[in-house]
Input
Amino acid sequence: MKLLPTLAALVTVGLAFPVIDNLDADAHQKAGQLAARTLKILEEENFQPVRRSALPLPEDALGISRAETNCGPTIPCPYFDAKDQYVSVEGEYAYAAPAPDEIRGPCPGLNAAANHGYLPRSGTATIEETVRGLNKLYNLGVELGAVLAAYAIVIDGDLAGGSWSIGGPQQSDPLTPFFGNGQGLSYSHNSYEGDGSIGRLDAFTNNGDAHSLSIEKFESVYKTGGDDTSENGFDQRFTIDKFRAQYQEVQKHSIATNPYYFTGAFSTVVVVPAAYNFVINFMSNHSEEEPSGYLDGYNFKQFFGVTGKPGSFVWHKGQERIPENWYKRPTISPYGLADVAADVGIGYLAYPETLRFGGNTGTVNSFTGVAVEDLTGGVLNAKTLFEGDNFACFIFVLLQQGIPHFLKGPLDAINSATSFFDPFLTPILGKLECPELGNFDQSLFNQFPGYKYSPTGPATNY
Ligand code: HEM
Output
């Protein structure tokens, strides 16, 4: 979609200043319209901003973590309904490996969705396509899909065209120089992608590549599921608690090996641990015997594009699959924003060492923490962070305030991005009982070299 072709053409011939005001007004209007249109469509599809998360302060968080099923923390999966939960991998949803011009990236859940046509096979999607496709395939909550996609559009996507890339940079439109050259998820380091991932290496330690699967990391997480070393892996069983413990180990390893290790942004405080939880909550299979879901080695490998057995695993880049005879979570139990907040929160309470704000200072094992009090101007501390709705409030404000911080470009573009994004977030925040959180003091992070490390992608798609 072309934005303001005449004005943009003038900008390219060097008359930038006289047109910036007009660009500002038009771009704002357009961003607002795009957000309003999308929200209207979602409303027609029963857009429910959020269930209250009201995370209780559990006395025995570790016990709760250990007892949690693969169905998540809020709504159980009480029965199995084959018709409702069956996921087609035939016809229009048949698997096809990506063509050379199709984009795939760091997220196996999205890659598998695109390889089966639940997301556009091109690897770029609008909010509506994201919400519909991920809801149909995984029963991912409508409001969660909308917020994740809207954020991807403003932070790393094509705001003018209203789409985002699940992998590398999108083709930029020469007529929209201020927009449309988002780096995609693959090169969204710290704004979306972060250190300490379940299967990808930290960007700094892998020449900026945080989207390729590390077989070593996969071997390590695979072991948490048991001792089945057979090729099919049917006897492995992965649980959310084992993954939370694994996250603690991975963090320690990152601190010991990555001089630029950083955690403090929405990406590292929420997206990275949430991705561990997504494996359990979205990739588990469901059956009559195990209605809450189970994840064995076979399904885990299929979703991650891995073949072979422990010791000789092989990753097939961009070839993540939905297994055959796989049944998603039931329609009565979508996994949404409240579940993300609750699951990430339980993880921090059960494994308190993993709640970190700060980073290494340029050498390994130099982790220096920033206190929650300092970051939030004294409004919250490590304990009150988990009272009432505070944690949910905190993560949404972290998300919102990160946008101007990570967006490069003129102020106009940043304002347009926030006017596009805020309508998605405001109804959510409105449902929560939030303390006055003001502006987080993100300048405290400037001391960490990893905070500013921002690798960019090649012009190619991966
Ligand atoms: C709009 C929806 C989604 C967006 C924008 C998104 C985005 C991302 C991003 C940015 C990462 C990199 C995070 C990191 O550095 O660890 C990631 C990783 C991951 N995502 Fe997604 N994701 C989405 C949906 C899903 C779904 C539905 C699943 C599961 C079915 C999923 C599973 C994962 C997993 C397992 C990883 C970690 C991969 C690894 O480290 O090997 N995601 N996703």
User: Anything to note?
Assistant: The domain at 5-452 is CATH 1.10.489.10 (Chloroperoxidase).
